[in-house]
Amino acid sequence: MRKYKIAVIPGDGIGVDVINEGLKILETAKELHGGFDFEYTHLPWGCEYYKKTGRMMPEDGLRILKDHEAIYLGAVGFPGVPDHVSLWGLLLPIRKEFDEYINLRPIKLLKGIQGPLRKGPEDIDFVVVRENVEGEYSGVGGLAYQGTASEIALQTNVFTRFGTERVMRYAFELARKRKKKLISATKSNALNYSMVFWDRVFNEVAKDYQDVQTQVMHVDALSGYFILHPERIDVVVASNLFGDILTDLGSAMQGSIGIAPGANINPERKYPSMFEPVHGSAPDVAGKGIANPIGAIWAASMMLDFLGVPEAAKLIFDAMEAVTEEGKYLTVDLGGNSTTQEVGEAIRNKMRE
Ligand code: GGG
């Protein structure tokens, strides 16, 4: 029996509710599929932990996580702790330390969900490959002359050849397995060093993938293209910031940010990869039991796929989509009135059918 060591960090706000449902789904998948088991390490890290200790995770937190095959994360951030402190205290160090340089975010309209565009599930089905450890989120910068009229803030974008090339290659390989179409999100007309470099590396790597049809689009124009012609999109490769923004737009196209999953992957499997819903902790909804668990459940499905049990991943995905298609159990963000637990239970029941 294969046993997977999973570190579970529900984090803050609705993270706790949705990860709870995700864990129940994982248990059902294990029971129905058979042949694998989980060993969970439950880690109560996040803003509450910060309020008690002054840290989002213990000093040896990354060492503790390293001993796992995957990390299942809910959400980070809560009033009382500045957002940049919570993000840089937990989520971003994990991505960087474990070289999770691919952030994979499927933008797929599930059956039964209307979405804000007049498009069907066959029209919205693409993937954004976001560079996840450098670029605009490299954390390099500084403040000077604070509190004076001359105050300045610098935030440096770091694009390395190594980091840029590897994310491009990953995106080309993914496109090869799909419809062989890849769009690179750029802004090289204004960002005359970083994005000119990004374009140059993209065009160089493209020479090794002549079978993949490529397009280079400025990120502002690409945002409009998402809305107007999603059916023409297959795979998008984007820098850290552009990918973050584009995938929030994509999640709205999916009908709700509550649905969207994300996988932070170290493709070499040298370190644990991390799976999370795209949404944050939503303090306004926290504790009400109405958060949509689908993003977290879909992330659990992506985790099983990554761990090497694609049939169990598909069992979860199909059940999830059967529930949205039926439309009987939906949370408030999708126009329903079901609770987080009711949606989770409906998905587990579908898995058993
Ligand atoms: N689900 C994890 C979470 O809380 N994400 C909120 C967030 O601000 N994420 C930023 C990012 O993905 O870079």
UniProtKB/TrEMBL annotation:
Catalytic class of the enzyme: oxidoreductase
Keywords, in A-Z order: Lyase, Manganese, Metal-binding, NAD, Oxidoreductase
InterPro entries from the UniProt entry: ICDH/IPMDH, IsoCit/isopropylmalate_DH_CS, IsoPropMal-DH-like_dom, TTC_DH
Record keyword ATP-binding present: no
Family annotation (PROSITE patterns): IDH_IMDH
Domain Isopropylmalate dehydrogenase-like: from-to ranges: 5-347
Family named by the database record: Belongs to the isocitrate and isopropylmalate dehydrogenases family.
Protein name, entry field: D-malate dehydrogenase (decarboxylating)
Superkingdom classification of source: Bacteria
Coiled coil: none
Keyword set includes Metal-binding: yes
A GO MF term: lyase activity
Alphabetized Pfam families for the sequence: Iso_dh
EC number(s) from the headed UniProt entry: 1.1.1.83
Reactions mediated catalytically: (R)-malate + NAD(+) = pyruvate + CO2 + NADH
Cofactor names: Mn(2+); Mg(2+)
